[in-house]
Design brief:
Number of helices: 0
Number of strands: 11
Strand content: over 45%
Radius of gyration: 13 Å
Order of helices and strands: EEEEEEEEEEE
Structural class: mainly beta
Shape: globular
Largest sheet: 7 strands, mixed
């Protein structure tokens, strides 16, 4: 089992920045990759960014350049640095961990970009 706890969401003005954190606990060694999805009201859940156990990263086209995913192995934590935020980035952001045979999800954190 893997437990994920997210933090860092909130309200920010357009052009601003936020950093989301996702702390993992439990069977950490089983995790192959971690990342973030987001879901805006009325929309499907979309992948935002992924980082593998080897350190490779991948981003959705809509956030490329503006968002950076990183990890601190000593803290078992993955971060999503979000810069140049736009109103269309408003969504619930959920952290996930892929252990190969199942995915685990955090509780989600709200990000609202509005003036």
């Amino acid at each position: 089992q893997v437990q994920l706890v997210e933090s860092g969401g909130g309200l920010v003005q357009p052009g601003g920045s936020l950093r989301l954190s996702c702390a993992a606990s439990g069977s950490i060694s089983s995790i192959n990759a971690m990342g973030w999805y987001r879901q805006a009201p009325g929309n499907q859940r979309d992948r935002v960014a992924t980082i593998t156990s080897g350190g490779s990263t991948n981003y959705a086209d809509s956030v490329q350049v503006r968002f950076t995913i990183s990890r601190d192995n000593a803290k078992n934590t993955v971060y999503l640095q979000m810069n140049s935020l736009k109103p269309e980035d408003t969504a619930i952001y959920s952290c996930y961990a892929d252990s190969g045979y199942r995915w685990y999800w955090g509780q989600g954190t709200q990000v609202t970009v509005s003036s």
